[in-house]
Amino acid sequence: MTTPPPLLSIREVSKRFGGLSAVDAVSFEVHSGEIVGVIGPNGAGKSTLFNLVSGLAPLTGGDVIFGGNDMTLVPPHERSAIGMTRTFQIVRLFGHLSVIENVMLGGHCRTTQGFASSLLRLPKVLIDDRKLRHLAMHWLNFVGLSKRADEPASHLPHGQQRMVEIARAMISGPKLLLLDEPAAGLNGAETTNLLNILRQLNDRGLSILLVEHDMKFIMGICDRIVVLDHGTGIAQGTPQEIRQNPAVIEAYLGKRNGDAAH
Amino acid sequence: MQTFGILILSGLTNGSVYALVGLSLAMTYGASRVINFAQGEFVMLGALSTVLFVTTFSLPMVVGIPMVLIVCATVGFLVERLAYRPLVRRGSQPLTIMIGTLACASIMTGTALLIWGPNQLFVPNAFSLEGVTIAGITSTPQQLAIIATFAFLMALIWFMLYRTTFGLTIRAVGIDPAVATLMGIRAETIIAFSFVFSAIVGGLTGGLVGPLLGGHVSMGIMLTIKGFMAVILGGMGSPFAAAAGGIAIGLLEATVAFYGNSFYAEPIIFGLILMMLIIRPTGLLGEWEANRK
Amino acid sequence: MSSTTLRNWLPATVILMIGAVLPWLLQGNFQLRIAMLTWVFAIFGMGFNLLYGIAGQLSLGQQAFFAIGAYTFALLQIHFALSLPLALLGGIVVCAVVGLVIGLPVLRLRTHYLAMATLMFAMIVHDVALRWTDFTGGTSGLRVPPPSLFGARLERIDLYYLVFGLAAAAYCLQIFIKSTHLGRALEAVKTDETAASSVGIDVTRYKVSIFVVAAMFAAVAGIAYALVSRGVDPSYSGIGMVVNLLTLSVVGGLGSRIGPFIGAAIVIIAPQILAGLQEYQTLIYGVGLLVFMIFLPRGIGGSIERSAEGSFDDPKGEKSARRISRAETP
Ligand SMILES: Nc1ncnc2c1ncn2[C@@H]1O[C@H](COP(=O)(O)OP(=O)(O)OP(=O)(O)O)[C@@H](O)[C@H]1O
Ligand SMILES: [Mg+2]
Fold first, then answer.
1. ipTM of this complex
2. Which of A92, A132, A150 sits opposite C192 (nearest CB)?
């Protein structure tokens, strides 16, 4: 039996900041249609790993292969067009643009690039703009925020800003969505809503790589989980396997329990 | 050898002036995270109010110079109180505040124009302008006084910043005003002090260099820019790096003027510093300074 | 949608009408000259507004492009006997190329560093204008030949409509950039470069492009200024010019569509009305700049747009009340 090549494969990826090894020779794969979770204690290197995958920080070693292509030389702004988008641990919206403008920016890679070419193709630019607005409205509808489309993004409460960020990431039609702690700061109802939205997207074939501290959330949604500690991958497997892995319990879950005890 | 000495001396004189402007800029920047575009105007104010007190009012130098310093301190205080502080309080961005200090520079030039007019004025000298020849190199006491003042101020600032509790609070505010405030340091007072102190340094520089350069209402902006170049060369990190940058620019200027065409010295140096800024935005001494801390 | 269109084109119509009838309302060459200078500085302001007000890149060197455009325009006419339209085009192209060559390295810098680097670039241009006497005419500058178009001498009134036409074209270009994906991308670059690049915006390319566009606006303004003043001199690239630019931009309102027109009108006309106060100009500009920054940071144009916006989108005024608290543009 031959398995299809993975959508994303991370091979021996490393990042050093001066003397600190934030990510140290981490390898794992994400297959099409999978939801993979990355867990680990604070400072384990999860966000750094995401920055490496999305190209915001240069690699110190290893390779990131996406859809069969080496991503080392692909600048971050070209990755959304290739099918990889992300959200941030701390929501990063363009605060004084409106909600819908924020979402439209996510589809920027689909618009005519450059000043001169835009000017020369004015009618096309205007038509594209209308289409993009339409599409943005569709995604706002999907996350349940179409009513707030024209408000400045900074006026929305945190939970809704998170949803706008997801809509902004989805509008470019990614194959892989990277979510850095999407449930952080959400209340119970918002977390359930987020879970539903992610399941729906996954049902449509989207692959998701996510970091999360909320154990119930991650155990409930992920097909596989990768555990980082001090920059190294100490385990990976199904939620079931991870729950029973002694190294993980020692390094991570044990500490968590200890935290919860006091 | 003799030409070399003359070159070094003239480079050191101008360099000291740039260094003093640069170090004032770095000090204000350190405390307030704002580049004070009015810094060079304090040199102008120093030079021209020396004319006012000593020539126009015929006050003796020992009375005149303190008066000059009082005027500069007052104006520095006003810049902080009427421009910097209101802008910070209404949450302006650092660049907006920088434009605010440019407005202050314009106000100072505009006012000086009304008082002293557009012509170059002779600034009375505190020290003799008679040549003294030491080891074949001719200098003037005025020139030497500038270099000496520079050295003295460097020592004073070093002592203040690194050997007093007050200096510690200044450095703390520079690192993080919010944390410093939590620790009970009055950040606003420290920032006000940095403005007033820089204004006094500017005034003193003006009084000393005026007799050599001549006093002119529009001399400030060029000195501000040279001061910036000093800061760029040394890196924003510390007043001492900025001062070293200033000396380097003075020496470079003297060398270019001597071996090349003095007419084109200025654009050439601008070009060199611009290139250097693009290649190494942290300044030549930037990393060294950063590592030292 | 329609409110956006209205917001863009209502001021355009008003400006167009004012501009078209102005010559009939004004008396004498002096007043006509003031009107032309207003258009000139509105163009200059629009370029800066795009660069700093929208894209957040502070350049203190726009006066360099103002001067390079004007000197190129004059030199092409003097040495190569080029016609007015070709010399105009030449001035713009030269500025675009210089803007690209300077912008590429300089825009790697941010905030204070960018401001200083562009100011130093302008100082170099100013020094060259002053010192390279054979080429630039030194302090006295160069004279621009009397303007003519297709063989016909341009009268004062024709010149007015030429300058006004340039301003109208610049306004349309500004609106185009502001209200399409270009403007959105530039706003994103201003707010958060990292997030911008992760949504697919080529940050460097956008910064350099808008720098070049602003350089071209400055070139057009400089050329128009040279036409109106019948010559170019080093004051074009002087520090006074950038103070004028900052004052008119802040008074009019950074990021506002109509701001550059309002700012230019006030900054140009005020010193003329206060006749005999010419020597107070530097002082007044400085005070004006500071007072506006502290008390009306959106400028006049921004404040007008704000209150109008409320009545366009939201008759109840609910939203505009909420928007007051919105963060200030830099
Ligand atoms: N730009 C940087 N420069 C230096 N060190 C950094 C940098 N970014 C991250 N680090 C360090 O790398 C390590 C990993 O950080 P990272 O943010 O990836 O952790 P994390 O797993 O996302 O933690 P958290 O759960 O708190 O979000 C930390 O020790 C952090 O201090
Ligand atoms: Mg993290």
1. 0.89
2. A92
